[in-house]
Amino acid sequence: MSERKKTNIILFSGDYDKVMAAYIIANGAAAYDHDVTIFHTFWGLNTLRKDEKLQPKKSFMEKMFAKMMPRGAENMPLSKMQFLGMGPKMIKKVMKKHNAMPVSDLVDLAKEQDIKLLACTMTMDLLGLKKEELMDDIEYGGVAAYIADGEDGAINLFI
Amino acid sequence: MSERKKTNIILFSGDYDKVMAAYIIANGAAAYDHDVTIFHTFWGLNTLRKDEKLQPKKSFMEKMFAKMMPRGAENMPLSKMQFLGMGPKMIKKVMKKHNAMPVSDLVDLAKEQDIKLLACTMTMDLLGLKKEELMDDIEYGGVAAYIADGEDGAINLFI
Amino acid sequence: MSERKKTNIILFSGDYDKVMAAYIIANGAAAYDHDVTIFHTFWGLNTLRKDEKLQPKKSFMEKMFAKMMPRGAENMPLSKMQFLGMGPKMIKKVMKKHNAMPVSDLVDLAKEQDIKLLACTMTMDLLGLKKEELMDDIEYGGVAAYIADGEDGAINLFI
Question: Highest taxon of the source (chains A, B, C) (predicted)?
Fold first, then answer.
């Protein structure tokens, strides 16, 4: 058994600011030599969507979900302070000014740091998301995969 | 002291999708032989409400809360994608198609798996919820009950 | 190394009810002899804002954020049940009736119990919050400070 500490984050939210928080904590933990897993479920799955319009075979309901849900973190709303839709743009402008990384860069950094990005297969089914719509270098699993990681976690969070 | 691992979930949210996530994790952990407690507080308490119109003696404010809050998970909104109120119906339709359990069944399964369902007495007071409005086979406690369970938890989550 | 158990709460939310839950758990854990830290980030930072109109030098965007964000917990909205803005007032009225502490008192109690109140410097930069706008007796840190506390935590929560 590895002596490295584990950080496991369930990323349920699809809000830009919460996804940002999740990836900052994950990257921070990895920098401190934790084995880190981000388990993307429900709206958090949208973080892993490719920013391309793909047309896999879908039911009407699945098409509707696909249309309404953002493709990738950079298209997500904020959890607060939407300012009639201006919120995400404002935050990104301030982030740029402060040389803070946009979420898409935090995701790339996570991959470089060998953070395990896991997509919840059960919610993929539910929301009609296909593997071809998600990033290539990720893993797949269900609640069993989470419990296996989580029960040894030094830091477990639901975001 | 038992050697079984513990999972403790604080269920604060009263959104259908978050309650579903909480109960899926809880049932998963129980399947992996964890002792599991779900501590229902604030809007999460609505999961435990009976779907009957009861008329216990209440103050005006308590009546107003009672009227506005859903009775049971199946009457809850989604945290996202409300689609003018169609969201919960859509999710349930897709869930049915995929043979996924509705939350009310997940609650029944939790009881069968001996998951401890605990109602936060402090918030019950605050929102004016009476014991007769909640399910029969649950337990009651305050923050002390949570800390006692939580401090030995392998997995602790706030949802 | 201390033998006391640790509770670490990341307070991301700026909703009155969630901040209340965070401070009730924190004060409960401290009463049970835990070393407790609340790491205030994003909208949770508003809990630590002084209820005074200060005019530090700010950019236009920073001024806009400052204007839109509540100064202190007592000016926060609820996460649910806004009732056209009446929600927070209603909750506070019921709390008073039940002799429950308002959040501002829970913050004072936390200080008395030596709970470490930490402000996330990265988000302060992002939202343009200056130290002079925050309470005096708090600490400052980034994600490294959180990981250091969190990896030894008995109870770790993201609220």
Answer: Bacteria
What confidence tens digit (pLDDT) does each residue in B32-69 have? 999 999 999 999 999 999 988 887 888 888 888 888 88
Candidate from C62, C127, C147 with C-beta closest to A29: C147
pLDDT on residue A83: 61
The set of residues, in sequence order, having a beta carbon less than 8 Å from that of C152 and lying 6+ positions away, is: A154, C6
The predicted model gives C51-75 an average pLDDT of 85
Residues of C in contact with A25 (CB under 8 A): 10, 143, 146-147
* Helix%, strand%, coil% for chain C, nearest 5: 50, 15, 35
pLDDT of residue B52: 84
Strand order in the sheet with B6-11: B139-141, B116-120, B35-40, B6-11, B155-158
Q: ipTM of the assembly?
A: 0.92
The Cα-based distances of A32 to A29, A39, C122, C145 in angstroms read 5, 19, 18, 11
Phi, psi (degrees; rounded to nearest 5) at C62:
-60, -40
Mean pLDDT across chain C, nearest whole number? 91
Q: Which domains does chain B have, with CATH numbers?
A: 6-158 (3.40.1260.10)
C75 contacts C51 by C-beta, under 8 angstroms = yes
Shortest Cα–Cα distance, B79 to chain C (Å): 10
pLDDT value for A2: 57
CA angle A117/A121/A126 to nearest 5° reads: 130
A154 vs C: CB within 8 A: yes
d(CA B93, CA A63) in angstroms, rounded, equals 14
Summarize the confidence of residues B73-86 as an average pLDDT.
Answer: 78
- CA distances in angstroms from B158 to B104, C13, C21, listed in the order given: 20, 12, 10
Per the structure block, which two tokens stand in for C44?
């949770």
Cα distance between residue B134 and residue A58, in whole Å: 40
Q: Determine whether the interchain pair A146/B18 forms a contact, defined as Cβ–Cβ distance below 8 Å.
A: no
